[in-house]
Write a structure and sequence with these properties.
Structural class of chain A: alpha/beta
Strand order of the largest sheet of chain A: 2-1-3-4-5
Strand content of chain A: 5-15%
Low-confidence stretches of chain A: none
Distance between the termini of chain A: 35 Å
Number of strands of chain A: 5
CATH architecture of the largest domain in chain A: 3-Layer(aba) Sandwich
Helix content of chain A: 55-70%
Oligomer: homodimer
CATH class of the largest domain in chain A: Alpha Beta
Largest interface: A-B, 26 and 26 residues
Mean pLDDT of chain A: 91
Order of helices and strands of chain A: EHEHEHEHEHHHHH
Shape of chain A: elongated
Radius of gyration of chain A: 24 Å
Number of domains of chain A: 2
DNA sequence: GCGGCTATTGTGGATATCCGCAGGCGCCCC
DNA sequence: GGGGCGCCTGCGGATATCCACAATAGCCGC
């Protein structure tokens, strides 16, 4: 439930059912689609969990589906299943960011392990993304002027210097500075620097 | 020259020579070893460039060689060459951090391109590592007491609070603080925070 | 037009930081 | 035993930051 859903995309009914059954037997929730198009049609950015994609499908290869999902901003880890060992394809997939690339037939336990690991990765990624987004939200709540001041505060400039650069009174800079700290939910310039350097750039 | 050397490890004389010739014809410097052991015997941590490893070798697989090099702290990007398409091996290699995994016979241009890309990556990695190491150097030059103070400065504590916690006078904290800034080559706590958060943790 | 938001400025005081000047104590090495 | 180094401390002044109180002005939407 909380750990996310395993999204299975495979045009072979038997394999879909077998995978769904396997995952269900291990307490994992899954949902299946018979084609890449079917999945793309119902894909939503707030889906969470992982993907299990067949490489060889009628309408679109699993890799192409993955490409399209990436373009849509999907960050779910993808496990590719392939029937015929194609090394270049495996290499290509992994270099594009696939979580794993497994040859069929594969060991049930191994597959389940990989799915669990993928679900865990998704969970961790989302947790990390959440804090990053929280920071960006706060940054967006700053006014243009506040951002100008913040840049200079982060550059270690004194309020006096900032005031001179922006041609405003020092007092104004102090007010902006206080607003920035309040909005960014930090209590010092040091914390602000750590928040932005540790998370992302502005 | 500056871009580093391509280290070729393959137990097939003909392939080694062919690779060396190919690289040389494109202006790239290479050095060859006939076995994993031979390379390990002469490996030095300050080698720079990239690796081209045959997966299938008599004494040790290219992957195992890569493992050992990783254990030795080697960060050179590795390109694996394989004759027989083994998907699990390719997957394993890439997940361990291989730069690429190419099937033989392969296109000359493609291989050279990958080698050039690997050399570029190594160069970029080293540049980044250099700044990280510079930071660590400076951190190590701090005395134990200075580190204690620095931790608290980074936590945004006032000198007064730091002094109370360490049971020393505020003036002493100020002195330590000044020494820290001097040694870390920054001029404010903000810069210090950015330096450490942007580079690495302490 | 009133209210809300943003940007601006001023006064003045409480706190903090930054630094030079001066000095003491303990440890280790030559 | 002198000299270097790390650690500690005090004094005093120049600067900065933090903040409450108080106010003016433009823009925008209801």
């Amino acid at each position: 439930m909380k750990s996310g859903i395993t999204h299975i995309v495979d045009d072979d009914d038997a394999i879909r059912d077998a995978l769904a059954w396997l995952l269900r037997s291990r307490g994992l929730t899954s949902r299946s689609w018979p084609s890449a198009e079917a999945f793309l049609g119902e894909y939503l950015p707030d889906m969470r969990g992982c993907l299990v994609l067949d490489i060889r499908m009628a309408d679109m290869s699993g890799l192409e589906l993955f490409d399209r999902l990436l373009a849509l901003g999907c960050t779910m880890p993808a496990i590719f299943l392939t029937g015929h060992g194609d090394v270049p394809l495996a290499v290509q997939s992994l270099k594009k960011g696939a979580f794993d690339f497994i040859e069929k037939p594969c060991n049930d336990n191994e597959l389940v392990d990989r799915v669990i690991a993928a679900l865990a990765l998704d969970h961790a990624q989302r947790k990390h993304a959440a804090s990053t987004q929280s920071i960006e939200m706060r940054l967006r709540s700053l006014t243009a002027r506040e951002r100008e001041v913040m840049d200079r505060v982060l550059a270690g400039q004194y309020n006096k210097v900032i005031a001179a650069e922006l041609n405003i009174a020092m007092r104004t800079v102090e007010v902006h500075r206080a607003h920035i700290f309040e909005k960014m939910d930090v209590k010092s310039a040091v914390e602000l620097a750590q928040l932005l350097a540790g998370g992302q750039q502005d």
